[in-house]
């Protein structure tokens, strides 16, 4: 509802490899300058205040775009990958069965699939991929 159909077509036809958040700001600046020339904005100070506020908002948008542009540092992903696989390896070793040849009382051979360890691994590895 903020653009006319014609403006939307121009916006969609604009080819840019990046986000096009800046296009409406350029349109706004041109319209504000045109309004000043036509006398709709009576004072240059008002135009300057209007443009300063618009530029402040545009800089906030570009800062947000910058956060999206720069990913998580590579070192962080390497550390998390190492932590996930080390944790899983420690779980595999730490959750082994007792040796039944030692004759521990009440501990018989218990063959099972470590379901919760596998679930933990799938959860952490999936979280890592995200």
From TrEMBL:
<protein>
    <recommendedName>
        <fullName>Bestrophin homolog</fullName>
    </recommendedName>
</protein>
<feature type="transmembrane region" description="Helical">
    <location>
        <begin position="82"/>
        <end position="98"/>
    </location>
</feature>
<dbReference type="InterPro" id="IPR000615">
    <property type="entry name" value="Bestrophin"/>
</dbReference>
<keyword id="KW-0407">Ion channel</keyword>
<dbReference type="GO" id="GO:0034707">
    <property type="term" value="C:chloride channel complex"/>
</dbReference>
<keyword id="KW-1003">Cell membrane</keyword>
<keyword id="KW-0868">Chloride</keyword>
<keyword id="KW-0812">Transmembrane</keyword>
<dbReference type="Pfam" id="PF01062">
    <property type="entry name" value="Bestrophin"/>
</dbReference>
<keyword id="KW-0406">Ion transport</keyword>
<keyword id="KW-0869">Chloride channel</keyword>
<keyword id="KW-1133">Transmembrane helix</keyword>
<dbReference type="GO" id="GO:0005254">
    <property type="term" value="F:chloride channel activity"/>
</dbReference>
<keyword id="KW-0472">Membrane</keyword>
<keyword id="KW-0813">Transport</keyword>
<dbReference type="InterPro" id="IPR021134">
    <property type="entry name" value="Bestrophin-like"/>
</dbReference>
<feature type="transmembrane region" description="Helical">
    <location>
        <begin position="110"/>
        <end position="127"/>
    </location>
</feature>
<comment type="function">
    <text>Forms chloride channels.</text>
</comment>
<dbReference type="GO" id="GO:0005886">
    <property type="term" value="C:plasma membrane"/>
</dbReference>
<comment type="similarity">
    <text>Belongs to the anion channel-forming bestrophin (TC 1.A.46) family. Calcium-sensitive chloride channel subfamily.</text>
</comment>
């Amino acid at each position: 509802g903020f653009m006319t159909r014609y403006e939307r077509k121009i916006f969609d036809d604009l080819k840019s490899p990046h986000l096009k958040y800046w296009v409406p700001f350029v349109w706004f600046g041109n319209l504000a300058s045109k309004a000043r020339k036509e006398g709709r904005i009576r004072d240059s100070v008002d135009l300057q205040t209007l443009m300063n506020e618009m530029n402040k908002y545009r800089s906030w948008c570009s800062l947000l775009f910058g956060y999206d542009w720069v990913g998580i540092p590579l070192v962080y992903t390497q550390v998390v990958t190492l932590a996930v696989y080390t944790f899983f390896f420690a779980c595999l070793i730490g959750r082994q069965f007792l040796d039944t040849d030692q004759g521990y009382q009440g501990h018989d051979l218990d063959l099972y699939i470590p379901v919760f360890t596998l679930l933990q691994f799938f959860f952490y590895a999936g979280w890592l991929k995200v």
